[in-house]
Amino acid sequence: MALFTINRYLGGQDESESASELRSKTRLAKLQERVKAREQQSLAAEEEVIVKDTSSGQSSLGKNKRKLEQEEKEKKQHKKKRKESTEKLDDASNTAASVEHSASSTNGTPTKKKKKRDQKKEEKQDTKDHPSEESNVAVQETKGDGRETEGNQKTANGHPDPSNTGSGKSSSDTSFHFLGGFENKTVQNVQRVLPKWLAEPDAIKRDIKSNLVPLSEVPGICSRLQKKLEANGIQNLFPVQVEVIPAILETVNSGLLIGRGGYRPRDICVSAPTGSGKTLAFVIPVIQALLTRVVCEVRALAVLPTKELAQQVYKVFYSYAEGTGLKVVMVAGQKPFAAEQVALSETRGGMCRSLADIVVATPGRLVDHINKNDNFSLQHLRFLIIDEADRMIDSMHQAWLSQVTKAVYKSGSGSDMSIFRRVEPGPITVASLSPPQMPLQKLLFSATLTQNPEKLQQLGLHQPRLFSSTHTSTQDGTHTEEKFNFPQGLTEYYICCTQSKKPLLLLHFLLQLKFKPALCFTNSREAAHRLFLLVKLYGGVEVAEFSSRLSPNERQKALKRFEQGKIELLISTDAAARGIDVKGVKCVINYDAPQYIRTYIHRVGRTARAGKAGVAFTFLLGVQVKNFVQMVLNAGSTGLQKQTIKPENLKGMESRYEEALDKLGKAIKEEKSQNRF
């Protein structure tokens, strides 16, 4: 720019000496002021950038260090360039002044028109030479402020920007508007609303003894099964059986293909106390519904969580199906896989046919047969029975259900126009009812059936109907409590003691108080094995253990000997707490306190079954008493009592007990050396 002014002023031959010196000085002063202003603006902008980078760079120090180094280098380069430019401007102004002085002395002053043209050209050239710095400053100011300022509304020469003045709006009109009015409001507690079928179940009477109903008064049971019931010594049915058996039989009155009125039958859910007769409530109607079958196909599938429980249900099915032509098969892993395959189906003349009408299975073995046994078909399945349904859901065993559903609605090799074609049901429409197809009806049974709709939804129930006598839901503030009905003849006690006194208390109950036979529960199989060894070494009590340490055959033998009265104390984990009907149990002892109320209910439910009397003791440490008592009372128990054992009652057993402890230590060391513990 300085060179341009030098060349331009070389042509001003008529300007006077005084005027030219004054004009050159004023222009030089303006140029220096602008250079200083630009330096200050650039330095301020760089400082803002550095401050921003350092504040935001706390999370990424490595990157910011590199940026700062680069900015420092650029800053140094800018300073060098400014110094060079200022030096050039000073030199140019000096040369311009000398040239103008010499030219004015020879040529005189220019005209006024030429002065105006030169000033306009100079201003235009000035704005063209430095547009970027002004725009950069404006951008930085908008980033820092978030709104427009006066510096952004002016051009490089200090005049107002015509785009801003022409709009006729102030800077406040174009700024951001902050939303307000957000005040702390009290949020109302959401009350849980259960589906109608859960909130309004069909009630089952709780008292068994006073609500027995004679067989002849229960509608729907055929004479053939009535004779079998009488032959097994059953003259009256329990309340749960009186309600559930007619409800299931009602869904098959029109045959296996269609339900009542031609619609798909509703699924049945039953929540009744332990020992109330739930097994017979589904065995009788299923067998009666299948009595008229012509071709042998798997039409009923009962799924249970443990092998022992599967064995128990299989025995009940087998006893009532005997002599009817119906065949019951159990697949629970107690036999080799090949032997179970032979029991399920056979092949004759290249044709495969089923040998089972009713299958009792555990989830794992059932999935094995669905995936590996090509001759195992569920395409004719009519009843899916899920016993101990809450455990099947809570223990994440429901993965088998999707496998069963796929196998049921698997497209067969026959024609799609077959009357037995099955399609996974959707919304009920006229088209979905024609032609009719065999429905899949689910029957759920548990003593502690959950009321959580999300968990029950995993089972894919169709318009379910709930029969319940076990628990209700009470809402209090922000949480919901579930209350259960305990067996009528059960008496509950808890005893506060130390961990070291627990074995002595157990021996005191058996040897001195004569609570035999007794079922004792621990929380782990290691604890069960240690206690078994200790009681065995102490002597005087016939004892056995029941846990996953033993094989299925060994567990079955232990249960059989316990039922026969050959074993006085059976020490078990929670494997025996679910559903297993052990006859003659007069006393249940919780050696380790259960952590959950459902576990406690299933444990104490092994006694006081079918309306009989029973007693349950729970050993508690001092820190466990408050929470345990509150948990049981909240669940609906009204008879929990505290029992105190005097220390002098245990003194006569202590010396012998110390000897047994010494022997126990040696026995455990020996087992560990042989990798048996």
UniProtKB/TrEMBL annotation:
Organism listed in the record: Pygocentrus nattereri (Red-bellied piranha)
The record's note on its domains: The Q motif is unique to and characteristic of the DEAD box family of RNA helicases and controls ATP binding and hydrolysis.
CDD domains (UniProt xref): DEADc_DDX51 (cd17956), SF2_C_DEAD (cd18787)
Residue stretches making up the Helicase ATP-binding domain: 259-467
EC number(s) per entry: 3.6.4.13
Chain intervals with Basic and acidic residues compositional bias: 119-133, 142-151
Domain Helicase C-terminal: 505-651
Catalytic activity: ATP + H2O = ADP + phosphate + H(+)
Annotated protein name in UniProt: ATP-dependent RNA helicase
Bilayer-crossing regions: none
Function: ATP-binding RNA helicase involved in the biogenesis of 60S ribosomal subunits. RNA helicase.
Superkingdom of source: Eukaryota
UniProt keywords, alphabetically: ATP-binding, Helicase, Hydrolase, Nucleotide-binding, RNA-binding
InterPro entries (UniProt xref): DEAD/DEAH_box_helicase_dom, Helicase_ATP-bd, Helicase_C-like, P-loop_NTPase, RNA-helicase_DEAD-box_CS
Record field: compositional bias (Polar residues): 53-62, 92-110, 152-175
Molecular function in Gene Ontology: ATP binding; hydrolase activity; RNA binding; RNA helicase activity
Pfam families reported for this sequence: DEAD, Helicase_C
Start and end residues of each stretch annotated as Disordered: 35-177
Family indicated by similarity: Belongs to the DEAD box helicase family. DDX51/DBP6 subfamily.
